[in-house]
């Protein structure tokens, strides 16, 4: 095992913490507040941020979409350049925070911002950013990843750069009170798949990473099973913290990862606008069945330690059934229904995009070529 690890995001967790951002932002900083379609105006979060920033020079940019687009974000990049912004404060879910990361990096680059997503430009510096999280799911508030869509070409691409890691993140579970049920479920599913993508690879014997991943999976399972308690403060706090820990880099250190469910899922979102988490539930069970021989040992371990299953020859198969049943218990489908052009055209469309993006050898074994991807999609669609 060999790795280098740091997660330097200062986290302010708990009720009433939004006002504390003033302790973390220099009084002389010019702040750009980024937000989405207006949920923060309706639930009082905007007011709390405005109050906290009342002694600051600050401006705002709104309208960042779910699955943020480069077309919208480039307007914020231009604003940063003309206004010489010192700090970006992202107030929202994964989309706003990811969008802020793109804006922060693109504002320090003279070329086309999309270059960052296609790997032509690797950001080394960015405007510092902080986050006020309003939707626990992605872990974006304390990781260095960002996923951006180009609406014109229906491309959804990711980049990661240490310079866009948020300096701080406010995680006040009270902001979840206005989340629609569907978004709470999305949060559980997205976080669940994040842990899986760092855990269901080859058995490594990494006791800390495996043990913590299993704790996170059991927590998410409990949150799903106690969904009727979702108006309870502790339930909210547990989901917010679990989703954060699921993708803050810790369980990935020194072990293999396999982000192929995400890579294929992103294409479903780019083509049909499927919610991110739901795209993962559609792909993952079929992908695991397709790749079961590579992942058997870890699936068996998960079956025992997460679902409490007893040993049998088909333990790995039963574990996948349990994962699928977990999604169904949350009313999340494991079949794509959004396509209108018929199954085979839909499968072709995804394969064409995966090939176009060069995703032709996915998984920790590079064993998901377009052939396996097609087998997976034939089941999922
Ligand atoms: O835009 P507003 O009006 O704020 O509404 C949002 C949006 O419509 C709403 N919402 C957020 N907080 C709310 C609220 N509504 C009521 N009350 C609140 N407190 O929820 C809707 C969805 O928000 P969004 O930010 O899109 O959801 P999520 O946090 O699930 O983020 C999804 C995005 O993150 C990317 C996904 O691909 C997708 O683009 N991901 C980012 C990752 C990362 N940075 O590490 C990893 C993930 O795997 C994922 O790919
Ligand atoms: Zn995700």
From TrEMBL:
Please name the PANTHER family in this protein's record: ALCOHOL DEHYDROGENASE YQHD (PTHR43633)
Domain (Fe-containing alcohol dehydrogenase-like C-terminal) spans: 185-340
Give the record's GO CC terms: cytosol
Q: What is this protein called?
A: NADH-dependent alcohol dehydrogenase
Domain Alcohol dehydrogenase iron-type/glycerol dehydrogenase GldA residues, every copy: 9-173
Q: Which domain of life is it from?
A: Bacteria
The molecular function GO annotations come to: alcohol dehydrogenase (NADP+) activity; butanol dehydrogenase (NAD+) activity; metal ion binding; methylglyoxal reductase (NADPH) (acetol producing) activity
Family as reported in the entry's similarity comment? Belongs to the iron-containing alcohol dehydrogenase family.
Q: Which UniProt keywords are listed?
A: Oxidoreductase
Q: Does the keyword Nucleotide-binding apply?
A: no
Tell me the cofactors it needs: Fe cation
